[in-house]
Specification:
Layout (H helix, E strand, L loop, with lengths): L1 H20 L5 E6 L3 H6 L17 E3 L34 E2 L5 E10 L3 E9 L14 E10 L8 E7 L7 E10 L4 E10 L1
Parallel strand pairs: 3-9
Antiparallel strand pairs: 1-4, 2-9, 4-7, 5-6, 5-8, 8-9
Length: about 200
Amino acid sequence: MRKRHLVGALVAAVAVPVATALPAYSHGYVTGPPSRAALCAAGTVTNCGDIQWEPQSVEGPKGFPNSGPADGKLCAGGNSRFAQLDNPRNGAWPTTKVTAGSRQNFTWKFTARHATSSYRYYLTKSGYNAATALSRSNLNLTPLLTVPGNNQQPPSTLTHSVPLPAGLTGHHVLLAVWDVADTTNAFYSCVDLQF
């Protein structure tokens, strides 16, 4: 009996330092206006798969637009577990009404904060067909806004005021990218907007 307690104590003593030595991973997503991941988590959109429980986990390789997730897989960050986010649902994702030529606040929620390189916001071009999966050819690859992260951890929520271009009408998709500073990954959020 004493031997069993000794072994148990030894296992616990080894497990605690190993568990605390593992790196902390960052997680975050756009909650306002609600991203596709946020809509799934809230139950507003159904048949979302795992993303409904992990809206903060849309993590993929950074380097967008020169590298990063493949075309057609941008909204899921190239992560096949969250492929439902790339399904355009025939243009039926719920949209948030916005006004062209104005500014719109976008709010990130961070469940695990991490040092940040930058936040970048991209928008689909005029004439975008919301019934198609998002690709680089659909997007204006010059960001609407780039916010440096200065290698700082963000607070639990963070809002950026993003300028929206004039002259747009219809359903567009905004791709928000959060580049973390000390990993090879970024987090991706797609937000459906109605101009």
